[in-house]
């Protein structure tokens, strides 16, 4: 079946290492859109971190933010769906994790991804690139305040612990009601139970009348693995994490070699 929708991760996949959209990639994106193929960014970023990239890449339609937790229309400002981690689930997780890793800190990203509620001490660990936010604007509140409302994404951070190790620790706590992953940034991300990029993409495709066979997906990080496995054709860039490469049907060139653009150009020749 011909490709009808392209779903692509951004950081480490579509974007160059300096977070730009190369001229070759922009030409390829414009060409597939001109051929009638939808292109949907599927990212851990929230809208605040997507807006500038959307201009550079020419994204104007649906985007999946927060690892698939929110479907947001970039031009219309419309939200198709949102999925929130409950207060009960995030509170139980935090209490259990603090027993094992006492100096871990948290952020609640909520209100459609527009509100960033950081625990005391979090901003001292952060750089602008981490969340596309100035750490000076992050504030500092008690853990109780961080956990007081449902989160579109709960950020968990503890310098000195590898992301994969922290994910494994959280999964081994013996508590339920959430999903946990990471995107290669210096923290891990906890979502509502069942929520992954694949979950969000499946919901959006149902809304659009599409099936997995209609979808070509690209990714690099562990949070992309389920999406690549779900899509009819999943492609990992050469710099992808091992788990993501294993989930993919194919491997293309790395993000710094326009790997996504190379595949899009080939799609147009098919």
Automatic annotation (TrEMBL):
MF (Gene Ontology): magnesium ion binding; phosphatase activity
Annotated transmembrane regions: none
Pfam family, one: Hydrolase_3
SUPFAM superfamilies xrefs: HAD-like
Gene Ontology cellular-component annotations: cytosol
Superkingdom classification of source: Bacteria
PANTHER family: HAD SUPERFAMILY HYDROLASE-LIKE, TYPE 3, PHOSPHOSERINE PHOSPHATASE
Protein name, entry field: HAD family phosphatase
Native source species: Ruania alkalisoli
